Amino acid sequence: MGQEKVEEAKAPKVGECVNLTGSSMNADHDEIDCGDAEATFKIVSDKGNCDDAEQNYTISLGTTDSGNVADLCLALNAAKGDCFDLGSMSTAATKVACAGAGAGSSVVKVVLVGKAGDECANGAQPLENKQRKTLLCLGRAA
Questions:
Q1: Are strands 134-140 and 125-129 parallel, antiparallel or unpaired?
Q2: pLDDT (tens digit, 9 = 90+) per residue, 18-62?
Q3: Which bin fits 100, alpha (ψ -120 to 50), beta or left (φ > 0)?
């Protein structure tokens, strides 16, 4: 049933990557190749019930009670060495070049990609996704 709704909404599929544009209250997406240096999010579920480490993204056509809804979970499309501007309450995260990140910016660098339950070293902040059993350790980009 969930897959059927995704196709109706013409939403990207699990395993594909997207970048979000607009505000968090009125977001849109651009589909992008996961190997692209700017690919920010990978769709990890189309069933909703996202992990705290994931961004929930709902696509609806028509009225919200029409049932034509895709409830997607987006995880950072991250590899060691990637940098992200994690955005704010009103803006989505974006993948950015590490070189331009100055002191005091909201840009973080992925210093480790591991398994849930691993530990981050050297003061890196853990972003653990218990549902997907992954861990990103985020450090300062500068």
A1: antiparallel
A2: 998 877 667 788 999 999 999 999 999 999 899 999 999 888 755
A3: alpha
